[in-house]
Task: inverse folding
């Protein structure tokens, strides 16, 4: 399911209701309200220290909130211990038991829950099949690669048939190609099982590619909750605009605003931009335009453009080329411009004077910080 609004307590598989948590004088979570739907995959995204792990630990019951309440499947769990919450967990340091075999590691949670031997064996086999580790039952963790150890940790989390799966930066220690294949596989398993999942990452690319919805956090608060497309296209504030995806910030001046459309002066040029975040702003107030690198287009000198500059760096990326353009004037210093294909390398060489046009209807505009 992909609900667009925050869910009310009864409808949510997991619901945080005005939850706060302090550690001495550090406010780790500041009145967080968040509802996660059944079978939904929600990512908590934010820089280090913003409160992601703390929120996950509160869901798991490793920590108690200072204020607010947490419910799972409609039941308040503030005072329910971890082992009664139906939580499957996987953390960055997967903490397998080194002296136990793969099968014993996976069976551990079933043993502590006193699941009978025959059922235990079947569920361990099913979980190992799900993560594609058949035939590895008798190995010790040290005889496995990092990716395989990660799979054991996932099987161990899944084998108890959790109500909710909690994952804290599970792939951050893996190299890039292994990380992307594990991302795809995790989502396939999660969809197949219809498992409600909260996934923590500080990697915006991972959040954009994996989530049904993502909660962008900073300093203990949720700054925006929405689908990856919503967050990328319509960031709620300058923090989200800068943190999620590449963005250029240009300084402009408000000229006029009418029916959600604003006219903004960028140096000598006028551009028409979305004005929904500018309501109440005085004319000639300073505004910040956030323009994605792919919303720029380089044009030859003399063609109509908004900004003039010259190419100071070419970054060849295979499928596209990133150009850095140094601008003259008050608008901004350096722009990151993305050109599809590879022609840009030859067409706009280092030092070339260029013009930059903007697809202004797609950019995000806020009152200047
Ligand atoms: N056990 C703790 N004792 C003191 N401060 C803590 C503790 N756990 C977390 N914090 C602080 O709370 C804030 C949020 O931490 P955390 O939830 O781990 O952030 P994240 O997972 O987003 O990096 C940070 O400022 C961190 O230093
Ligand atoms: Mg953390």
Result:
């Amino acid at each position: 399911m992909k609900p667009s609004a925050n869910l009310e307590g009864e409808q949510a598989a997991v619901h945080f209701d005005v939850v706060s948590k302090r550690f001495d004088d550090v406010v780790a979570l500041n009145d967080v309200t968040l509802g996660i739907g059944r079978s939904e995959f929600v990512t908590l995204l934010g820089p280090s220290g913003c409160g992601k792990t703390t929120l996950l630990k509160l869901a798991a019951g490793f920590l108690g909130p200072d204020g607010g309440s947490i419910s799972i499947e409609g039941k308040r769990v503030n005072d329910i211990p971890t082992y009664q919450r139906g939580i499957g967990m996987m953390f960055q340091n997967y903490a397998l038991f080194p002296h136990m075999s793969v099968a014993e590691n996976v069976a551990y949670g079933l043993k502590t829950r006193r699941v009978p031997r025959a059922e235990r064996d079947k569920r361990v086999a099913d979980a190992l099949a799900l993560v594609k580790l058949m035939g590895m039952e008798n190995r010790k963790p040290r005889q496995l690669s990092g990716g395989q150890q990660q799979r054991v940790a996932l099987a161990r989390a899944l084998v108890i048939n959790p109500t909710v799966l909690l994952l804290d930066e599970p792939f951050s220690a893996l190299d890039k190609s292994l990380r992307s294949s594990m991302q795809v596989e995790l989502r396939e398993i999660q969809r197949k099982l219809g498992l409600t999942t909260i996934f923590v990452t500080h990697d915006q690319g991972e959040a954009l590619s994996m989530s049904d919805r993502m909660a962008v956090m900073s300093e203990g608060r949720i700054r925006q909750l929405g689908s990856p497309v919503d967050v990328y296209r319509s960031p709620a504030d300058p923090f989200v605009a800068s943190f999620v995806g590449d963005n250029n910030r240009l300084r402009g001046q408000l000229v006029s605003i009418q029916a959600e459309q604003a006219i903004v002066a960028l140096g000598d040029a006028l551009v028409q931009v979305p004005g929904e975040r500018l309501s109440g702003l005085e004319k000639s107030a300073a505004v910040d335009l956030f323009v994605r690198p792919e919303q720029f287009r380089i044009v030859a000198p003399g063609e109509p453009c908004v900004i003039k500059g010259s190419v100071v760096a070419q970054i060849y990326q295979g499928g596209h080329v990133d150009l850095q353009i140094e601008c003259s004037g008050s608008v901004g210093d350096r722009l990151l411009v993305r050109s599809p294909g590879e022609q840009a390398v030859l067409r706009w060489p280092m030092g070339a004077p260029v013009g930059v046009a903007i697809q202004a209807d797609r950019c995000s505009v806020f009152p200047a910080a």
